[in-house]
Design a protein that fits this description.
Blueprint lengths: L7 E4 L6 E11 L2 E6 L4 E2 L5 H6 L1 H12 L3 E3 L7 E3 L3 E3 L2 H9 L5 H4 L22 E4 L9 H9 L1 E4 L14 H11 L6 H17 L5 E6 L2 E7 L4 E2 L9 E7 L4 E2 L5 H7 L5 E3 L4 H5 L5 H11 L9 H4 L10 H7 L4 H14 L1 E6 L5 H13 L5 E5 L6 H4 L1 E7 L6 E7 L1 H9 L9 E6 L6 H5 L2 H6 L5 E2 L6 E2 L5 E8 L10 H6 L1 E4 L10 H8 L5 H11 L23 H17 L7 H5 L1 H16 L1
Parallel strand pairs: 8-10, 16-23, 16-24, 17-20, 20-23
Antiparallel strand pairs: 1-2, 2-3, 3-7, 4-6, 5-6, 8-15, 9-13, 10-11, 11-13, 11-14, 12-13, 18-19, 21-22
């Protein structure tokens, strides 16, 4: 039977020599056996994760070295060599023994034309390895992990009613028809949907080399899938679907797991895709030095994916420096550092104040500095008709590019898009920022919906209204909002929003806004009269929500011929007319440039007298 398969080769890491072997038809624990050919090279050292993550293969390698079957090579100095054929329980075990690391044998063993071993199997396994949670304690309290899985090197899934013809690699559509018929009288419609999802993942999406996790006795146990799924008769119906795996003998305390991993493990389902936290799972039990050694020793070994040391990097926000303070014309570097600390601690911040105080500019510049550039910053603006569907996700009419038919399709909003970007593997230690301008112009409770909860509890997830999936806000997503107190009083913001955001006021009567225009003018070597006029103007305004910010006078157009007068007439005075609407006040007489200049001269004359 093995003659139907070609010879297979494995290139050792870092451009090493090539080993050879052959696949057998005979099976062991659900996987086809594989023979390492005599004369094959093997790496002399192992990576730190090998002994911890593939204990059985590690012990076999050590035994083969001790009995001389694997010994120092004369042909390849610095390498080991296999003196006789070695029969292994799976291609992955054979590849791991030779490379001294955990590999997916179905991908690393290749035919002479470069095709992986998986191409020659009836079941095609494609794509990178994934990680899965499979629960092993049923409702009756029997812990299958300790009673069945660990002793017999398997993982199982109950499928009591499922007909015997369920098989490895079957399509979801075919499986759905089986489940709908077989469970029609014993499961609800929603339950049948979940049975289809879990059985399809177990039968057709899992593949050799994938990682399996389970929880038992407050410990997380980890294993590698070594073979195909099969359906067997089970006396109690608890383990009808089975897969052979190689379990790591010791567990990891659940309470000591990374927070992101614990959140993924807290879902209610029996089978959960954990691929987004695969690197965190790989790094369990290893020090940072071990992970560095792993990455260096693995070289170009296929299937290694994102180094676990990268996934474990801590989220950090850079400290503001004096160059940023100078660029923003802030009076004190410590003030910027306080904003950074508030964001790092609370993850949500609101800048509020009258118009023209530079709230949006400051929010964008601070976000781009802390996020490392504009690519990780998204700006949106709220308005009275803004909705949850605009903000997060909802159904929108879209035209099919081929049929030209219009249909409603679930479309992500800016928050969902940014959250998905921040959650990508390799990005979790990188801060991302959502800047919401004019935040209080929308109905906040309506726009945020169930996301209100997630703003306060970043380690929890909620079931989404439209997609029906579980969602959490990643810890590396920060929100900066701006609120214009002249447009709508900040007092109208409800207590729930106040509790979830830190609020920082930008007032023309306090730093850094009070002296911003004067510092800007000084940096450009311009006359300080506009700053004097602005201070005189705000001294005449009683309502702090209607003070005028310096941004109106921080534009090039103001300093062209007649620019100051045009800006005052067309920008600033109309603001004050709205403020005093219905009072019959002569705005020009009270706030005009001539009036203010006269007041400034009088104040100077008085101070020098």
């Amino acid at each position: 039977m093995s003659d139907s398969y070609p010879a297979f080769q494995l290139r050792l890491p870092n451009g090493g020599p090539v080993a050879h072997g052959r696949l057998l038809a005979e099976r062991a624990s659900g996987s086809q056996k594989f023979v390492i050919g005599a004369g094959s090279p093997a790496r002399s050292e192992v990576v730190p994760s090998f002994a911890l993550g593939a204990t059985t293969s590690y012990r076999l390698r050590q035994q083969l070295i001790e009995d001389g079957t694997i010994r120092p090579s004369d042909q390849w100095p610095g390498w080991l060599e296999v003196a006789a054929d070695v029969e292994c329980t799976s291609p992955s075990a054979a590849g791991s023994i030779l490379t001294g690391s955990i590999v997916n044998g179905w991908e690393v063993w290749k035919a002479a034309d470069g095709r992986p071993l998986s191409d020659f199997m009836e079941q095609v396994w494609w794509g990178p390895n994934r990680a899965w949670l499979v629960r092993g304690a049923d409702v009756a309290g029997l812990d299958l992990v300790q009673h069945l899985w660990l002793p017999e090197s398997l993982v199982s899934l109950p499928a009591t009613q499922l007909r015997p013809r369920a098989e490895q690699g079957m399509s979801k559509d075919r499986l759905r028809s089986f489940v709908n018929e077989d469970y029609e009288s014993t499961a609800t419609y929603v339950q049948r949907i979940q049975i289809v999802e879990e059985c399809h993942a177990f039968l057709s999406r899992m593949k050799p080399g994938d990682t399996i996790c389970t929880i038992s006795g407050g410990q997380l146990y980890r294993a590698k899938v070594t073979g195909s799924a099969e359906q067997v008769l089970s006396e109690d119906g608890r383990s009808n679907l089975r897969r052979p795996v190689e379990w790591q003998p010791t567990g990891f305390p659940y309470n000591e797991l990374p927070e992101e991993l614990r959140q993924k493990l807290s879902g209610p389902y029996d089978v959960v895709d954990l691929t987004t936290v695969h690197a965190l799972i790989t790094g369990l039990g290893l020090s940072d030095q071990d992970l560095d050694d792993d990455a260096e020793a693995s070289g170009s070994t296929p299937g290694t994916g994102l180094p676990p040391i990268t996934a474990r990097r801590e989220l950090a926000l850079p400290e503001p420096d004096q160059s940023l303070a100078d660029e923003l014309h802030v009076h004190d570097l410590e003030w910027l550092q306080e904003l950074r600390d508030l964001l790092f601690d609370e993850q949500q911040l609101v800048l509020y104040g009258p118009p023209g105080t530079g709230k949006t500019h400051l929010a964008l510049q601070l976000a781009e500095f802390l996020g490392g550039g504009p690519g990780r910053v998204k700006l949106i603006q709220f308005h009275p008709s803004y909705t949850y569907e605009d903000f997060f996700e909802g159904f929108r009419p879209q035209e099919d590019p081929i049929s030209r038919e219009v249909a409603f399709r679930l479309t992500p909003g800016p928050l969902r898009e940014l959250a998905d970007l921040a959650s990508r593997e390799g990005s979790r230690h990188i801060p991302h920022f959502l800047v919401i301008d004019e935040m209080n112009r929308a109905n906040l409770a309506k726009v945020f919906g169930e996301l209100y909860f997630l703003l306060e509890y970043r380690d929890r997830s909620v079931r989404l209204t439209y997609s029906g999936t579980d969602f959490r806000l990643p810890p590396n997503l920060f929100v900066i909002g701006t609120m214009n107190t002249a447009d709508r009083s900040i007092a109208l913001v409800d207590a729930a929003m106040r509790r979830r955001f830190s609020f920082v006021e930008l007032s023309p009567r306090a730093e850094p806004t009070r002296g911003l225009l004067r510092r800007w003018l000084r940096a450009l070597d311009r006359d300080g009269e506009p700053a004097d006029l602005l201070e005189a103007l705000n001294a005449q305004i009683d309502d702090p929500d209607f003070l005028v910010g310096p941004s109106y006078l921080m534009k090039k157009s103001v300093y062209r011929e007649g620019g100051l007068e045009r800006t005052w007439r067309t920008k600033i005075l109309p603001l004050l007319e709205e403020h005093h609407y219905g009072e019959g006040l002569d705005i020009e007489a009270r706030y005009g440039l001539d009036t203010l200049r006269t007041a400034i001269r009088h104040r100077r004359d008085t101070s020098t007298a």
